[in-house]
Amino acid sequence: MQILLFFSLKSMYNKNMKILLASLFALVLLSCDHSPSESQRFAYDLLGTWETHEESAVYQGSLEISYNHIIIKEYGEDQTPKDADDSRRPFSNFIKNVPLEAYSKDGHIFIKAYGTWQSGIPYTYWTTPAVGVTPRQEFLRFSFGGRNEDLRKIEP
Predict the structure, then answer these.
(1) How many CA atoms lie within 13 A of 147 on its CB side?
(2) How far apart are the C-alpha atoms of 41 and 18, rounded to whole Å?
(3) I need a surface site. Which of 57, 68, 119, 151 has the fewest CB within 10 A?
(4) What is the pLDDT of residues 7-62, one digit of tens each?
(5) What distance in Å separates the CA atoms of residue 139 and residue 152, rounded to the nearest whole number?
(6) Where are the domains of the chain?
(7) Whole-angstrom distance, CA of residue 2 vs CA of residue 150
(8) Strand 137-144 versus strand 121-128 pairing type
(9) What's this model's pTM, rounded to 2 decimal places?
(10) Cα-flanking dihedrals φ and ψ of residue 70, to 5°?
């Protein structure tokens, strides 16, 4: 009788352990978000508002970068000179003035446009140190159609 009771308790314990482990596994799976837009974020240094560094630049625009979104402002088609290559216009293939899902990884910015993640846009980030009364400045450089586009951070 004791042996039968022992095996009965052991099988009930095993069954409960299996249910507990399966429940924990399901909980872990449900709590993990596998979408790139939710699991990927912008590097901290990129957060803020950026604008064209050179006032005399052919193309003028700005970027607002938040935790996992980017808003591209200006850089409109009307800025491309007549008979010029529009591929040189920064962010020419993206919707303007609306938050787009985006993130940075390994020196590239990835933007979701028209429901699809686009190829990463390479960038270079650098700073200039504070000297005297001149504060530290932060810059981003992109290349579009072989032409560099430099942006300066204006708001953190």
Answers:
(1) 14
(2) 36
(3) 119
(4) 555 565 566 666 655 554 544 444 444 444 456 899 999 999 999 998 888 899 99
(5) 5
(6) 2-32, 37-155
(7) 81
(8) antiparallel
(9) 0.71
(10) -135, 140
